[in-house]
């Protein structure tokens, strides 16, 4: 199915809506699922195809940097609403019941933008039931709990308590990444899900492309007149937006207190880390395993060569890394914003995206079960921002760069033959230019 296809029912609801929200409670859809299963992909699909629906989005991330907001491209979505992004300014969404998450919910309820519904993406390590009381408190109606599942990997993670919990109270399971799974794996996964969830609906998907009325409640929507824009409205919120704050987490049943911290390094790149203990069992994650996250941020570009030759192999060889995601600025292609994704199934994706619309900066989150290993990768990342000096003492490296550059422009008919006489300096000019002899 194509991403922009909407079901007839949904179209009717959107285009013929005449009665609805009124005094009723705002409907909320909670999206949950293990690390890397496709939750953000689902949100992006809904937002890209929302028509004129006003959908508020809250993102709750295990790590403490604003990566999911970056990946969701909230600036673009917000400008479609003609709204500014407002960051949560205190605490962590799912742990601090009376804190910023509750505040954000309240602001969405009170918003004069009259949002049609709210989508909450929970962290890949969160339990959905933790969110329910807070929604009730602000008078929201939890309409649907969706769990996104990686069809190919379900059998490997199904013994993890957290994964079972995420499937406990679910209304709809999106059996995602069906393009990567065999038919056998898909039907095995469906058997597992039937046993675990009982009557929950299971829908196969690729990149979460499902009709929108499956995942959001369109039934109570009324025709909207656009209210005046205000500065304080928040269609996309992410508690990750404040990486420098310290907070406590309590994501898991019996667990866990974690404190985030931020350290600065000398080269304008920074790292932060936090840790949560949980009790899990299953492939790769044993009882008493502890989840950690570290964040790499840098205003200095990374070397693509080092990234490819050192960092990717290190990530692939790591047993403790479960997930990496973020935006990367590479020295070799400074104009392009790369979106990087790495899942624990060792799938790597680096998409060369649009040009930067703000100051270029890398922001990469690593989540895993072996903190020293994560920190080791972090160190490599930090080192990859230390590019070799252009002029070395013997000029050797610079000569090499000069030779490569000469090769490049010699092949381009628009340039005059470059001069090699003053190596490592290259003298060249555009053909017909009066400025260069
Ligand atoms: N091949 C394939 N890749 C997919 C599919 N759905 C999502 N992905 C990719 O899987 C990676 C992870 O997707 P996300 O949507 O970021 O996963 P997530 O659940 O939000 O991840 P966390 O928030 O870190 O837990 C990205 O590279 C997606 O492009 C799918 O159906 N097929």
TrEMBL record:
Reaction(s) this enzyme catalyzes, per UniProt: GTP + H2O = GDP + phosphate + H(+)
MF terms in GO: hydrolase activity; nucleotide binding
Region ranges (Disordered): 265-286
The keyword Chaperone is annotated on this UniProt entry: yes
Domain CobW C-terminal: 291-381
Keyword Hydrolase appears in the UniProt entry: yes
InterPro entries to which the protein is assigned, alphabetical: CobW-likC_sf (IPR036627), CobW-like_C (IPR011629), CobW/HypB/UreG_nucleotide-bd (IPR003495), P-loop_NTPase (IPR027417), Zinc-reg_GTPase_activator (IPR051316)
Keywords: Chaperone, Hydrolase, Nucleotide-binding
Family per record: Belongs to the SIMIBI class G3E GTPase family. ZNG1 subfamily.
Record protein name field: CobW C-terminal domain-containing protein
């Amino acid at each position: 199915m194509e991403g922009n296809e909407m079901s007839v029912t949904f179209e009717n609801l959107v285009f013929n809506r005449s009665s609805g929200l009124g005094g009723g409670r705002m409907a909320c859809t909670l999206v949950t699922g293990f690390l890397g299963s496709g939750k953000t992909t689902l949100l992006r699909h809904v937002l890209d195809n929302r028509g004129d629906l006003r959908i508020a989005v809250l993102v709750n991330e295990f790590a403490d940097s604003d990566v999911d907001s970056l990946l969701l491209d909230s600036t673009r979505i917000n400008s479609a609403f003609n709204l500014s992004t407002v960051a949560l300014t205190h605490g962590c969404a799912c742990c601090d019941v009376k804190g910023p998450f509750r505040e954000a919910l309240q602001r969405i309820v009170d918003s004069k933008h009259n949002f049609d519904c709210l989508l909450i993406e929970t962290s890949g390590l969160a339990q959905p039931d933790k969110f329910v009381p807070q929604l009730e408190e602000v008078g929201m109606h939890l309409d649907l709990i969706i769990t996104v599942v990686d069809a190919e990997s379900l059998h490997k993670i199904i013994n993890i308590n957290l994964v079972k919990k995420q499937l406990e109270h679910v209304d709809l399971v999106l059996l995602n990444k069906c393009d990567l799974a065999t038919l056998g794996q898909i039907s095995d996964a469906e058997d597992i899900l039937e046993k675990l969830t009982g009557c929950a609906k299971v829908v196969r998907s690729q990149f979460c492309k499902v009709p929108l009325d499956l995942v959001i409640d369109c039934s109570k929507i009324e025709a909207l007149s656009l209210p005046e824009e205000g500065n304080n409205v928040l269609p996309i919120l992410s508690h990750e937006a404040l990486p420098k704050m310290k907070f406590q987490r309590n994501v898991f049943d019996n667990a866990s207190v974690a404190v985030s911290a931020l350290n600065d390094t000398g080269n304008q790149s920074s790292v932060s880390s936090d840790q949560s203990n949980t009790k899990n069992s299953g492939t790769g994650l044993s009882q008493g395993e502890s989840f950690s996250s570290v964040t790499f941020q840098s205003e200095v570009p990374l070397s693509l060569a080092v990234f490819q030759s050192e960092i990717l192999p290190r990530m692939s060889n790591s047993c403790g890394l479960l997930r990496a995601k973020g935006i990367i600025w590479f020295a070799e292609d400074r104009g392009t914003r790369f979106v990087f994704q790495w899942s624990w199934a060792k799938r790597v994706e680096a998409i060369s995206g649009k040009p930067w619309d703000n100051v270029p900066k890398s922001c990469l989150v690593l989540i895993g079960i072996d903190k020293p290993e994560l920190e080791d990768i972090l160190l490599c990342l930090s080192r990859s921002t230390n590019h070799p000096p252009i002029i070395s003492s013997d000029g050797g490296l610079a000569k090499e760069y000069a030779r490569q550059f000469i090769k490049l422009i010699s092949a381009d008919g628009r340039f005059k033959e470059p001069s090699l006489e003053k190596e490592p300096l290259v003298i060249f000019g555009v053909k017909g230019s009066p400025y260069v002899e």
